[in-house]
Every structure is written in C-alpha cells, then in structure tokens.
Write a structure and sequence with these properties.
single chain, 561 residues, alpha/beta, eight-stranded mixed beta sheet, six-stranded mixed beta sheet, 18 helices, elongated
Length: 561
C-alpha cells in the first residue's frame, strides 16, 4: 500500500485509502471487522518507519468468537519524549440491508455515484452525486474516511519526523456501533503504555463524522467532548388475571405504556445547555414477557430507553425517573380504580377489597429491602448469570431483576428501575491547565484554517451522538459512580467496564471529524474537498501545536525505553 500511496497528494491518499477501506465489508458483529483490522495492520507495516520498527505495530484481541482486535501503532518522536497524542477511530460499520436492490453495490462508491446522478426522488442527493465532490458507500462517512485520514497523517509524520516533537499512538477499535468492546478493551492497554513506557497522553483526536444540523447549515463542527449514555430499564411486575376478570388485575403493559408516554422523546427531560445539540431520551425496547397466546393478561413487561447525559449523572437521572414513574403509576392506579368503580355501578355487583397500588423502586433500594428480609441476593444473581450465558447482556439484566422480584414473598405489583448496558461516560474539557491548553490550541488552529480556506467552524462542547471518546476520561465523583454501579445488575459480569482504569487514564478526546450527510442511511456520503484536504491539515497542525505547547508547559520528560 505504501508504494501506491507515496506518489500521490494527501487528498489523493485519503481518497484511495477510503475506497480500499469501504470495499471491505466490516459490518459490526461479523468477521469483516477482523478483515479490516488485518488490512490496517498490513498497511501500517508497509510504511518504511514500521518496516524498520515492526514491534511498534501490534494488536490486542477483543473477543475470541469473532477474532476482533484492536490495532495499535506507535510513531515515536526523533527526540525521545513521553508526550503523546492518540489518533483513534472505529473500524466497524452498520449493515447494508437499507440499500435494498442496491445492496450488491453498497461498497462500490463509483456504482452508487452513477446511480444517484439519475436519482430524482431526492434532489439534494442527485445534486451531490453530479458534483463529483462526494464519495458514496457504506462506511464512507461513518467512518472509514476518518480512519484513512489518521493513517495518511501517520504516514506523513513518519516521512517528516522533523515536524514531530512528540509521539503519536494510532488506535483502531472494532465494535463502536454496538457494545464498544474495542475501546473498553483498549483502556487497559493504554494504561499499560502509561506505566511501562511512561507515555503521557496529552489528548486524543477522533475523526468520527460531523454533519449539518439544519438545512443550509455550512458549519464544520469541532467537538471538544462527547455525550454520555445511560440505558434506564424498567422491570414492570403487575397482577395478572383472566380477561373475563380484567378489571381486578393490574396490566403491566398499561404501566409500561404510561411510562413510555412520559419519557419517550420528552424534551423536558433533557439538560438545557446553551448552544449544544441536546437530544431527548428515546425508547429502544418495549415488550411484555408472554411467549405464547393465552387469555391471561401480561404479568410483567420490559422497557428501556436510550438516555443521553451531558453534565448530569446517573444519580441525577435515577432521581428524576423515580419521580416520573411514581406519577405514572399513580395515574394508572387512579384510572384502574375509576374504571372498576364504574363497572360496579353499571353491573350492580358487590365491591371487592382490591388495591391497584404499584410500588416504584430503584434496584439499589430493592436489593436493600430484600437483604433486610434475609434474601440471598448474591447466590440468586450468580445462578441467573450461569443459567443464561447465551442471552445478550440486556436480557440477562432483566432475568436478574425478575429473579430478585420473585424473592419478594408478597409479590407486590412493582416497577424496578435499573441501568443496563451499554453505559458511556460523558467526556468534556474542564478548567484544568491541560484541558484549557487543548481548547486554546484547537481554537487557534480553527481560526488559522478559516482564514486560509474560508471554512466556517463552530466549537461545541459535546459530540451529540455516541462515540468511543466517551471512554477515555471520567468526570463523576466516586459517590456518583457508586449510584450507577449499585443500580446496574452485576456490572462486572454484564458489562465489564473498567471504571477505575478510565479514571486513571483521564485523556481528553476531541472530535475533528470528516464532513458529510446521511450517516447510517443508504445515501451516506462524505464531502471530499473538506474531508480529504482541509481536515488532514487541520489535524496535523493541531497535533504539532499541541505537542509543542505541551513540551513547553511540562518539559520533554523522557519516555522509558
């Protein structure tokens, strides 16, 4: 690959590598993730610097089943120093089913461009295709072009070591589109590099995609942090009954529906942070637990939400959701009682001593209640995990909570609120000298780039979607993290994230992303003039300035050889 790249300009190199990466079907959860990792490793080892230093390119196994792995490459400064910048990005893509009859060409940018030139159902897509300035294809935007930029810049610095006053660590990670196993596995490797080689990670640069936020938006957004994510989950236990006696029961689906109505896309549950794109919670799963048809109402229901967090904590969110759920259950209780009273009035039947009260509790409080009654919570939890290893992690969490509910001798109607996987910490620049240095370097380079290119930049605090940069630092206090862990069913087993290691790592991650439209859609495309030309230079200049100023601020402390 080096021989193919070396005679080309930087934009041509990015274009060539992007096409080569897109052609490899690297859909999340398939062997294609391994194929792409192998291609990147082979590409890196073709660079003259790494041919001389092959030990500086290595891999880390992420999982045994698919053989997925992280790829690392360390480019060392000519003058030994510990100051290091991480270039990182994910290797996987979403699937290609959305391409329909064009699925066979989903990885063929030229065929897609030819098709969209005549596509009259979306004039914006057609106009972009006819301009010749956009590259189509699954992963072209999210985020093979970003991976290509990192590789091209790594090649540039390896050929021009005099420009580099620090080290660059490239890191390619699988599984960003699902469970983030790549980056969470990499945390231990990064901390090992800190300890054993003395590396000081001054910042990380991600190149995940950016996109217009509204029609006619021409800003190039630079994000100095990432939104976090919680998955608040609800195990809803009602009182089942025969449909012939339905008014005496408490239908779990009715409770689920009322909770969903109050949370799903509720903009009032979002944080209000001026100038930021803040997204409301959205329902990702709602289902009762009946497996076959019968005339019994559903005893229990399952519900969970995608819930973005920016400056709020898991403790804040749990408090808010408990209050909302109590209100939802009161409304259900009042409705059920009113319907029953009207039924009695119409039929003239004698009243029965019925209650429609529904308890609401966090998992933490419920476990404390069970232990107070002498329940062996730990043994039951371990048994559930052992018996349900084949299930995906969210369903294991529900199984655990279901088993705990069965330990309650009273079998009360109840909603148990807990957190399921995945959890992503929020990541943003604080007031520390290091973080402010990075912010100033980014803003200075954007000003210079804007003058040179005419681009319009906007700096935002939070990347509004989900990104691996979330896992590189942690802002919550121990007390706030404790509130997450105690409400997460067996976190160490169901979602083995190294919270202490993330806190120890503590690397700020900025996102300088490729620009395009329609990520995760069949019209996905990346804008070449900015992404392949302006952005690589912006990242290189930011890298040089950040390393230079870090050396001035902290000195060139030598790396351990």
């Amino acid at each position: 690959m080096y021989k193919k790249l070396i005679e080309k300009t930087i934009p041509e190199q990015v274009d060539m590598l992007t096409r080569a990466l897109v052609e490899i079907e690297s859909i999340n959860g398939t062997s294609g993730e391994l194929a792409l990792a192998n291609f990147i490793k082979t590409t890196l080892l073709s660079f003259p610097y790494f041919q001389k230093n092959p030990h500086l390119v290595w891999e880390q196994v992420v999982d045994q089943n698919l053989g997925r792995k992280n790829i690392f490459a360390l480019l060392k400064s000519p003058e030994p120093t510990k100051n290091t910048i991480i270039y990182h990005g994910h290797l996987d893509t979403v699937g290609t089913d959305d391409y329909g009859s064009l699925q066979k060409d989903a990885l063929n940018p030229d065929a897609l461009e030819a098709f969209f030139k005549d596509y009259q159902f979306d004039r914006d897509v057609q106009r972009d295709a006819r301009s010749g300035e956009w590259l189509f294809g699954r992963g072209a935007l999210d985020m093979q072009s970003g991976v290509a930029i990192h590789l091209v810049n790594l090649l540039h610095f390896s050929m021009h070591p005099e420009e580099l006053s620090g080290n660059i660590l490239y890191m390619g990670n699988p599984d960003e589109e699902s469970q983030h196993k790549g980056i969470t596995s990499a945390i231990s490797e990064l901390n090992t590099l800190k300890k054993e080689q003395g590396l000081n990670f001054v910042c990380a640069i991600n190149a995940d995609f950016i996109t217009p936020q509204y029609d006619g938006d021409h800003h190039r957004y630079i994000y100095t942090g990432s939104a976090g994510k919680l998955l608040p989950s609800f195990y809803i236990y009602g009182r089942e009954t025969h449909v012939g006696d339905t008014l005496s029961g408490i239908d779990s689906t009715l409770i689920s529906a009322e909770i969903n109505r109050r949370i799903n896309n509720n903009i009032n549950l979002t944080e209000n942070i001026a100038g930021e794109l803040i997204l409301p919670p959205s329902c990702l799963y709602q289902k009762d637990t009946k497996e076959t048809y019968n005339v019994q109402t559903a005893k229990s229901s399952l519900l969970y939400f995608n819930y973005f967090i920016y400056e709020a904590t898991a403790k804040d969110v749990m408090r808010k959701l408990e209050e909302l759920t109590v209100d939802a259950c009161l409304e259900v209780e009042e409705s059920l009682s009113a319907n029953y009273q009207e039924f009695i009035k119409r039929t003239g039947l004698p009243t029965r001593n019925l209650s429609w009260h529904i308890d609401v509790t966090s998992l933490e409080s419920f476990i404390d209640e069970l232990k107070g009654k002498g329940a062996d919570v730990e043994t039951v939890t371990k048994q559930v995990i052992e018996e349900n290893k084949e299930l995906e992690s969210r369903m294991i969490c529900f199984k655990i909570v279901e088993a705990l509910q069965q330990l309650d001798p009273d079998k009360k109607p109840r909603v148990i609120i807990f957190y399921g996987p995945p959890y992503l910490p929020h990541n943003y620049l604080g007031d520390s000298e290091r973080d402010q240095l990075l912010l100033n370097v980014v803003k200075r380079n954007l000003e210079e780039t804007a003058k040179r290119t005419g681009e319009t930049f906007a700096v935002k605090k939070f990347f509004p979607y989900l990104a691996d940069g979330s896992f590189l630092s942690l802002h919550e206090s121990d007390d706030e993290i404790d509130a997450l862990v105690k409400n997460f069913p067996e976190l160490a087993e169901t979602y083995p994230i190294q919270i202490k290691d993330i806190r120890e790592l503590n690397v700020p991650s900025v996102n300088m992303g490729v620009y395009g439209k329609d990520g995760h859609k069949w019209t996905e495309r990346v804008y070449k003039p900015y992404s392949f030309d302006v952005l690589p230079t912006l990242i290189r200049n930011t890298t040089k300035m950040m390393l230079d100023q870090s050396n001035e601020l902290h000195g060139k402390e030598l790396v351990i050889e």
